């Protein structure tokens, strides 16, 4: 079966500290991978997506970066966090060429920058 | 500009009181419209996919419908466990790898 793992579940980090959130997918090969951010009471904002190893598309210029070092691993990073980086971060995947089920989401990471 | 709008932002219902949530979209080349349910502090969970106007899907007390301009999520005789935020997303145009999300409707069903 296909599953997606995302960690940590919660994170409190000081302003100016680095960030690394990790997401892995099991049970499917060459997935499309996505990072979304959800601010309180608002919709999902697409941050990055990847259609293959080393291929990253950025949707919103900001303090974050993403990398895909392996086929089913997607990492969200920052060198120096800002207060505005606080939010709920979601990793998601879709199977290549399979639009029927849309996204499958991870359980999310609640990031609070203090 | 492609856009997805959900209404109302919040909806309070009594248990058993049926209602509908709306998702209107202005996109070119709709490929699919998706409904998700999101519980507090969790990732969205897939409910339905609709591909063409006139299509309908049902699951328990939920029924999703699609027209050329909008989709409705009908909730029949809701129960408190149906309380959640319902999100719709649209897959459209040449950007087939990207989905456009509405801001969601927060549903609260009182016993």
Question: How many domains of chain B, as an integer?
Answer: 1
| Helix fraction bin of chain B | under 10%
Shape of chain B: globular
Number of strands of chain A: 11
Instruction: Report the radius of gyration of chain A as a whole number of Å.
Output: 13 Å
Topology, please?
The complex is a heterodimer of chains A (114) and B (111).
Chain A lengths: L2 E5 L2 E4 L5 E8 L5 E7 L5 E9 L2 E4 L6 E6 L2 E6 L8 E8 L9 E2 L3 E5 L1
Parallel strand pairs in A: 2-11
Antiparallel strand pairs in A: 1-3, 3-8, 4-5, 4-9, 5-6, 7-8, 9-10, 9-11
Chain B lengths: L2 E5 L2 E5 L4 E8 L3 E9 L6 E6 L5 E4 L2 E5 L3 E6 L8 E9 L6 E3 L3 E6 L1
Parallel strand pairs in B: 2-11
Antiparallel strand pairs in B: 1-3, 3-8, 4-5, 4-9, 6-7, 7-8, 9-10, 9-11
Tell me what you see in this structure.
The complex is a heterodimer of chains A (114) and B (111). With 114 residues, chain A is mainly beta. Chain A has a single domain, classed as Immunoglobulin-like. Chain A has no helices and eleven strands. In chain A, strands 2, 4, 5, 6, 9, 10 and 11 form a seven-stranded mixed beta sheet that branches. Chain A has a four-stranded antiparallel beta sheet with strand order 1-3-8-7, with no helix packed on it. Chain A is globular and about 40 Å long. With 111 residues, chain B is mainly beta. Chain B has one domain: Immunoglobulin-like. Helix content of chain B is 0%, strand content 59%. The mean pLDDT of chain B is 92. The A-B interface holds A 6, 32, 41-44, 46, 49, 51, 59, 88, 90, 92, 94, 99-108, 110 and B 31-32, 34, 36, 41-46, 49, 87, 89, 91, 96-99, 101-104.
């Amino acid at each position: 079966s296909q599953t997606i793992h995302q960690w940590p579940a919660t994170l409190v980090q000081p302003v100016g500290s680095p960030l690394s959130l990790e997401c892995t997918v099991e049970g499917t090969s060459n997935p499309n991978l996505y990072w979304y951010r959800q601010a309180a009471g608002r919709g999902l904002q697409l941050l990055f997506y990847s259609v293959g190893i080393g291929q990253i598309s950025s949707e919103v210029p900001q303090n974050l970066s993403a990398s895909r070092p392996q086929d089913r691993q997607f990492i969200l990073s920052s060198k120096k966090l800002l207060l505005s980086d606080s939010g709920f971060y979601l990793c998601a995947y879709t199977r290549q060429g399979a639009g029927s089920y849309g996204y499958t989401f991870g359980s999310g990471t609640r990031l609070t920058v203090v | 500009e492609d856009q997805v709008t959900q209404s109302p932002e919040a909806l309070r219902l009594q248990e058993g009181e049926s209602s509908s949530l709306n998702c209107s979209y202005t996109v070119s080349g709709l490929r699919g419209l998706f409904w998700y349910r999101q519980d507090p502090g969790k990732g969205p969970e897939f409910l339905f996919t609709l591909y063409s106007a006139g299509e309908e899907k049902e699951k328990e007390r939920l029924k999703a419908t699609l027209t050329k301009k909008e989709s409705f999520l009908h909730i029949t005789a809701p129960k408190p466990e149906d309380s959640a935020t319902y999100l719709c997303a649209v897959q459209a145009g040449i950007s087939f790898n990207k989905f456009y999300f509405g801001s969601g409707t927060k549903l609260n069903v009182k016993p």
